Amino acid sequence: MRVRLEDVAKAAGVSPKTVSRVLNNEENVRGPTREKVLAAMAAMDYRPHLSARSLASNRSYLVATLYDNPSSNYLTEIQTGVLDACDEHHYSMMVRPLLAESPDFVERVDALILHHRPDGFVLTPPITEHPQLLAHLKQRGVPYASVSPVQHEAVIGAFIDEPQAAREMVGHLLSLGHRRIAHVIGHPAHGASGWRLAGYRDALAAAGLPYDPALVVEGDFSFGSGVAAARTLFSLTDRPTAVFAANDDMAAGVIWAAGEHGLAVPRDVSVCGFDDTPISRQIWPTLTTIRQPSREMGRIAALQLLASLRGRGEGHMVQLPFALQVRESTAPVS
């Protein structure tokens, strides 16, 4: 027979309400009592009945993660982090791909709200910046947390200092003697694209180098756009000696295009990316990149949302650290 919440309460010598509070990670349970309840759950192999739990609390215990991003490596990291937080707090997670530029985008999200009743959303770029959606969620009273939003005020979630990270990456290339440094921009609708471009420009200006528009080519965060951008850059009469791509997928595309043009990385051209997703360690040469803790950002954003849902304050916008990862794809200019 299925173990009930009441059975756990009896075994632990507490009330069913106390077991419910432990399940919901509420703070007003003493440590020894919490440990006793958790031990009883483990001994009895108790699994919460989500339907009954939902009916009792008028919640769905479902978090929906929305995305419109071609970088599968980045998305996998974010979604895994959200799932970590949901598992920790006995929530389910729904992942929904949507086209932010679609004319019926808000209507599709509204249909998701009506059909699945998520308790809240985790938004990823560029959906984090969709004004109509944000206004609609506010109107409906549906909470959300954002990963890397452009504006950090009045929202909860997680971010890193992307302009500073880009400055450090370009500073690394400058320290290797590179002066013809190109940049492949991400999708124009993503806040990260503007931040990383700003950091690139700031680093050049600090080094007394002019900004050359010919060395800046737009991509969309996909491998294919990195290939296309690199073909343009490598066709220049005075080609760059280094390319800073705004994410790892595009940087991998740049390395592919370098081989197509007979260029060796890093002997003929240094290449670096951003995010430190698995592909950065799976390609050769391994990629110099900025470690953005994407999985942790997804987890923290979800935790802020869940804290808000449980009434533990309104949640926060949390800044996480980044780190420059120097690998084999960058070297002194030859």
Task: Explain how this protein is built.
This protein is of the alpha/beta class and 334 residues long. It folds into three domains: 5-48, lambda repressor-like DNA-binding domains (434 Repressor (Amino-terminal Domain), Orthogonal Bundle); 60-160 and 294-321, 3-Layer(aba) Sandwich (Rossmann fold), CATH 3.40.50.2300; 162-292, 3-Layer(aba) Sandwich (Rossmann fold). 46% of the residues lie in helices and 14% in strands. It contains 13 helices and twelve strands. The protein has helices spanning 5-12, 16-23, 31-44, 50-57, 72-88, 105-116, 131-140, 162-175, 191-206, 223-234, 248-260, 279-282, 294-309; strands at 62-67, 92-97, 120-123, 144-147, 157-159, 181-185, 216-218, 242-245, 270-272, 289-291, 317-319, 323-325. The strands form three sheets. The protein has a six-stranded parallel beta sheet with strand order 2-1-3-4-5-11. Strands 7-6-8-9 form a four-stranded parallel beta sheet, sandwiched between helices. Helix 1 (5-12) packs across helix 2 and helix 5 runs parallel beside helix 13 (294-309). The protein is elongated.
